[in-house]
Structures are given as structure tokens and as C-alpha cells.
Amino acid sequence: MVWNPQLSRLSCLLASFLVSVAVLPATAQDLRVGAAAPDFTATDSNGKSESLDQFHGKYVVLEWHNQGCPYTRKHYVSGNMQSLQKEWTAKGVVWLTVISSAPGEQGYVTATEENSYLSKMHAAPTAVLMDSNGKVGHLYSAKTTPQMVVIDTAGKVIYDGAIDDRPTPDVEDIKGAKNYLNEALSASMAGKPVPTPYTRPYGCSVKYAD
Amino acid sequence: MRCFRFLLVLFAVFVSGAAAYAASMSASASADAKHLHVQLVVPETVLSAGEPADIGLYFKLESGWHVYWKNAGDSGEPPHVRWTLPDGITAGEFQYPAPKRLPLGPLMDFGYEDEVLFPLTLSVAKTVKPGPAPLHAKVDWLVCREVCIPGKAELEVAATVGDHAGKTAASGPDVEIYKRLLGRLPEPSPQGAKAVFEPTATGFRLAFLAGQRETSAQFFPADQNILSNPTPQTVSPMATGLVLDLKKDPNMTANPAQLRGVLELSGGRAYEIAAVPGSVPAAAPPTTAGDAFRAAGLAFLGGMILNLMPCVFPVLFIKGLSLVQASGEAQHKQRGHGLVYTAGIVVSFWVLVGALLGLRAAGATLGWGFQFQSPIFLGLMAGLLFFLGLSLAGQFEIGLTLTSAGGSLAAKQGYAGSFFTGVLAVIVATPCTAPFMGAAVGFALAQSAAVTFAIFTALALGLAAPYLLLTFQPAWTKLLPRPGAWMEVLKQATAVPIFATVIWLAWVLAQTRGAESVAVLLTVFLLLAIAGWIMGRWPARRIPSVAAGLVIVFTIAVCVYGLNVFAVPVVAGNAATSASGVGGARWEPWSQAAVDKYRAAGRPVFVDFTASWCLSCQVNERVALRTPEVDAAFRKANVALLKADWTERDDAISQALTALGRSGVPAYVLYSSNSATGSGDAPVLLPEALTPGIVIDALSKLPAATSASAGNL
After folding, report:
1. Cα(B140)–Cα(B39) distance, rounded to whole angstroms?
2. What's the CA gap between B283 and B619, in Å, rounded?
3. Quick check: A22 and B358 CB within 8 A?
4. Which residues neighbour A175 within 8 Å (Cβ) at sequence distance 6 or greater?
5. Cβ neighbours of residue B605 closer than 8 Å, sequence gap 6 or more
6. DSSP secondary-structure letter at A44?
7. How far apart are CA B672 and CA B686, in angstroms?
8. pLDDT tens, B515-546?
9. What is the model's pTM?
10. Range 541-560 of B in CB contact (< 8 A) with A
11. What are the residues facing B47 on neighbouring strands?
12. What mean pLDDT comes out for the span B8-16?
């Protein structure tokens, strides 16, 4: 008996192959409205580390963002997104803009580029999360830019979906649109259930790393 | 390239509005916008009062760009149109052809590439007076590749309302578009067909029963937010149709009253269905039990023959050798080895199938042989075989070093070795399994989990059978030579096929991951050689054993880390160039759009589904596909040649294989041109072992109309 014993030593190696193969493709998680918002830590455009945990007890808005996306531009060129940011942060809401475009993909920006964009557009989010590895995006199953997620003071997701009910890139369509974000925040702050907790988001697809 | 794309988007964002409006000013029947041509298609411009008229909106898209179905999926928007029509004329709703799945990272969209016609019906009231009837449409759309560009145009066709006598036979390009594309509309559910669904823990089981067995299908939900779009849909064939397992959108609270949408079956047959709640028959009804038994029987035979395939040879050497050694042992021990070897094979097939089904359920699109698409797997496999080769060649004896330290029973160690040999046999046999029994593996994976496991168990038993039989018939092993000094020579010789396998794996890795991956691999080999040297120099001592173990652990880390970081995928374009080298025929990379394009242009299409790690594929390409006579036959029949390279994971190719009832490569498909036969006919699947004669014979059976058009190109 010469090599059979050797082989047995190698069987643990083999087990590690199978394990490594099994864990290779990562799968996106399902976000469920009504469930606890998954915690995350990410670096913002000023290099500061932000975690969801630190905002516990406050309303948090997550806004998926991509400067070049025509649907996002609709809400920034018109000033709509900035006025939403100012209106709600003034009421104590934490507004986190998330950029999940991977390096080399459309929509990816450096922190410096993002900061100059923020000042040029007079945008007023609490912070912009530089999520270039898509960690936060995958955690929240973010599909499009813009996509809005609202988290309540108990840390529960109370809204996930589109910013409003006019899925077009036209600035004219902002007027008269039903804004789901306003609706969710207003209802929840008034102690009422959110009338439309889940919609299909519209916009450009989030440009994750392949 | 990416930078260019980014600039393109920015540019497009700024100018698209202007361009679209510029196009709208002329208000002609068609407009050229960014990445597409849009056209109002009116086959008969003379309308009749009181009679409906068929018109449509046609998009011709740049390669790689798409527009969307009515349910665009996870992102995107379908085109919209606002009509300005003369009094008494009203436009009906768009009709949508069956869409395609358009995967985009973790998202899944539904839409159209290449070209699409959205037909609709105008109703013309009886009261409409004869005279000019301008049809004016404001159209807007979203056209996407990785990036999305909205566009709009105003289109107008100067139709007239005339009387019946004034009608002439319809002709012209609009009629041609209509004729060519109208067939892509889904048909109403066939008479007597039943579509029911029932909720499950994670989604729905949807049954479509129309009388005949179906093996592949895709359901496109008409309503948004009902299904998790990217999750692959599992098909269970039934005697009278099929059952689809669908995953629901996790945010859906109440079950829908109906599941409405388009069900696409093999060969492009598509039906509009509206499934109602009801009881879905069990996935494995008695009628398919016969099929399952037949498949299991075939799998057993296939497993036996698999022993003769080149993949399994290296392992056979090891097994044969151990048989010779064991011939002196007690009979019950030999039987034990045979049974343990069998168990090793069975268990590893179960692990592989389980992993594959589990990953599929979790959302991955994979087929048989999937582990060879992972560079880390290839690297570890090559490292393992290299180490084994070193040992066989005599550099060291792991057994002596490690097991003496542990002081375990030799017999027990021997059984573990037999088990592991079985595992190794399965691992190296996988790339041969699919080629050898493509249809059977494809069938097995489409069954319920229980049937799938049963068929693979039969395959495993078949693979183990020859050796098992020998251990149970000791009379036959008496024919084998007595153990002796010559065994040492044989053992060393066995290292040769093992090292040959290592060369093959290194070649596969270099093909897909470039020179850096080979550098990583060679480093891994060096470290393994050092570990082997330590074990050979100081056998059976505790400290060197531990040191060697540490080196091996470090080697695995180098392999995993190095291949992850340094091994970059070789750009897909090289598939085309490497393929076009021999024979002179032009092999282009496969895409469904390319298949459709060539067929629409009147050319037959041949698709080679292949992978670097698939040995049969390589053999077939060299002995049949790239030979001068086959090349000449391809040219004579004016066949468009497409190569679908599955060496790396490719969801589009996995889906195409599934649609063909296969789960792995090789697969060879010959499509006749649309103009020869109309679009709906099924493609011809060639056998998995090709000869020039088989290919030439298949080409000669192409419908005659194609050879008539051969002179054009």
C-alpha cells in the first residue's frame, strides 16, 4: 500500500475545492419592505465612515444616484431632488445619496468629482456614500437610479421604489407627479401607515461591477 | 473603451433631446435617432371606411442596443406613442412580440435587440369621408446597452381614405417588414390548453398543459412586481406539458388573482397565457417514470463507457495499479475497496449535482461542468494533480510521512484512498460527461431533484461498475500479474498521464485568464515541489510534516489569492480570432441577435457551442469542423459560422443551451435560413462526436432555397 494513504491526505484539499466553487458566485439579497433595514458601513465623499447604525432613531432616506443618467438628471437639472433634500433634512431626516457605479462603469466618480458636482448643483444630502464595490447597493437590491428607500425611526424599511409615478426623463413631468417619497415620509411622521410602501423604481440600471 | 462609452453617454445625454427634435421637424414616416431607426409602418396607405387597418411601429437597433417589452423587467421603459389622427379614426393598443431576457449584472430586463415591430390596429369609422388622412404619432422610447438614452420623434404618414375599388395589391418595404416580423407575436393560448398556478413558499408553480411534452420554457410576466425577474425558472417536463417553478418578488404581499404573461416554449413558440389559481399536478407523473427509467439505464451504460474517455484515463491508471496491489489481499478487503471507490463516485456526483441545483435555485445560470469555469477551481485542481504526480514519480510518499506520524491503521487509510480516487474520477470526468451524454444530462437536470439524483446515481454506478465487478470476481484478478518490484516502475509511469492532465489544465487557464494566471500556477507548483521535497527528505517526522502542511496551506492561499487578483479574463474577442485560424472560414462570436440577423438575411447558421476545457470540443473542431472539406461545404452552402465560447461563465450561452435541451458543451446546431422555411422551424442538433461526413451530410439536407441565394455573398 503506497499511494492510497497519500490520497487520503489530499481528500481535504479536494473538499476545499468544492467549497470554493460553491461560494464563488455571490447572489443578491432580497430587501423586504417592513423588515429591518440591513446595517452597513461605507465611506462618504469626504472620506468619513458612515454607518446606518449611527442614525438609529432618525428617518433615513437612501437615494441611488448617477450624475450621467437622464432620469437622475431630470430631478437634478430641475432642482427637484435638491429641494427634496433641503425640505426633509430641515425636518431632521438623514439623506444619504449612494453611488454604486463600479470603477470603469458609467456613473463612477471620485470623491473630488462628486463634491464639485454637489456644490455646482447646490445639492444638500447629509452625505454621499461612495459605494463603488456595490456593497450597499446589493444589500438593498437597488436596481435603478434614482431609487428611493425610506427607513423609519425604528430602523424599518417603510418605502422602497420609484421617486414618483411618472417614469420619464422629461423635466415637465415633475409637475403634477405623485411623489412617493413625500407621501411615505409625511404619512409615517403623522403616525399613519405608508399608503404605497413598494413601487417599481424607474430609471437607468445601477452599474455594478460585473 | 469604457471611458469612450462614458463620454458617449454624456454626449448623448446632452444632444439626444436636440437630435430627437430635429428629427421630428421633418415629420416623415421614419427617423434616425441615437442607436436606432424608428419608423411608422403602414402597409396599405389607402384606408377604407368601416374597415380596420393594420399598422405598426418599427425599430431597427444598432448591434448591442435594445428597447423594451411592455414589462421592461427590473429597469427600462417600453416605447410610448401619442397619436394625432383624423376624426373617426382611432388607434388600438400596441401588440408586443415575445421578448428576450436581457441580463444586466444582478438585474434582468425584458426587451428586443436587432429589430422589432409593434403592430396595432386602426379602426376607421363608417362615417369617415374619403380624402387625405394624415396619421401623426409622437413617439418616445428608451434605448439601452449598458447605458440608457431616452429619445423621441414625431412621425407622420400621409394616408388617404378611399373606397374599396381604389385598392391596389400591397407591396413595398412596409409590407416586407410586416410580413417578416408579424410572426413574432405570441399566439393566443391553444384551444383546450390549461394554465394554472399555485403558490409555494417562495413563489409559484405554473403548469401549462396543452397536450404534448415540453422540455424548455420561459415565462415573461405581464405585470410588474410579481416575480423576481433574474431568478432562473426551473422547468419540469410533463407528459402533457410542463411545470415552471417561479420565484416571487419578495415584496409582494397578496397573491395575484391571475398570472398573466407570455410563455415561450422551445423553437420560439410563444403563447399569451393567463393562469388561474388551481392545483398543479406533481412534477413527476407516472407517464414520465418510464422516461426516467430509460434515462437512468442510459446513464448507467454511459457511465461505464465514460471509463474509456480521455478525461478518466489518468484516474484509471491509479485504480488499475491499486487493483494489482490489492490482488494479494483478502477477498473481503478487495470488495471493501470496490465498494468504497463506488461510494466516492456516488457521493461526489451528489455533491456536484447538489451544488449545481443549489446555485441555480439561488439565481445563478450554470450548466454541467460549471466548476471548470472557475479559475480557482482550475488552479487548485492543477495543483492537486501536480502534487499527486510528484508523489507518484517518487519524490516523496505522503502516506509514510503523515500517516506514520498519526499511527493510524493502514487498512483504514487504504479505504480513504479508494474513496478519494472515486472523487477524483468524478471531478476529472465532468468535462467528458456532458459531451458524451449531453441530452441525458440535460434531461436529468430538467427533472425534479429526486429524479435528477436518481439518474446521476445511475451514471455514478456505471462509472464504478467495471472496477467494482473486478473486485467481486477475484478469479479475474488472478489474471493480473503478481505484485513485485515492477510495480514501482508502473507507479512512476503513472505520473505521466497525471502530468499530461496538469498541462491540459494549465492550458485551459492560460486560454481564459492570460499569462499572469500561468505565473501564479507555476509559483504554486514550485511551492508544492518544496513541500514534497521536505516530505521526501525527512519522512515520518512530526516537525517536517507540520512544515510541509503549512507550505501546502500557504500554497492554496497563493492559488486562491493570486488567481483572484492577477488572473484577468481574456477579452471575449479572442474567441473569434483564435477560431478563425484554421481552414479559413470566418467564425464569429455567437449571439442570438447574430443568429437572427443571418437567418433573416437568408443564410443558414451553424453554431459551435464549445469550451477550452471540453476535450471532445477540441477534438471535434480539429477532426471535423476546421477541416478543408467541411470548410468548403460551409462556404458552398453559404453558412454563417458562429462560435459560442462557454469556457467562462456566460448566462446567454447557458440559456441557449437550456433551450436546446442541453446542459453543457459540446453542442452543434444548424439553423436553416428564414427565407427557406419560414421562421418557426426547429434547428437541427448534430451528434456530440462529429466527423466531416456528419457535418457535410447535415449541410446537404438544408432546404434548397438557401443554396439559390448562395451566390450573393
Report:
1. 12
2. 38
3. yes
4. none
5. B594, B595, B598, B599, B639, B640, B641, B642, B670, B671, B673
6. B
7. 13
8. 888 888 899 999 999 988 888 888 767 787 78
9. 0.52
10. 552, 556, 560
11. B161
12. 41
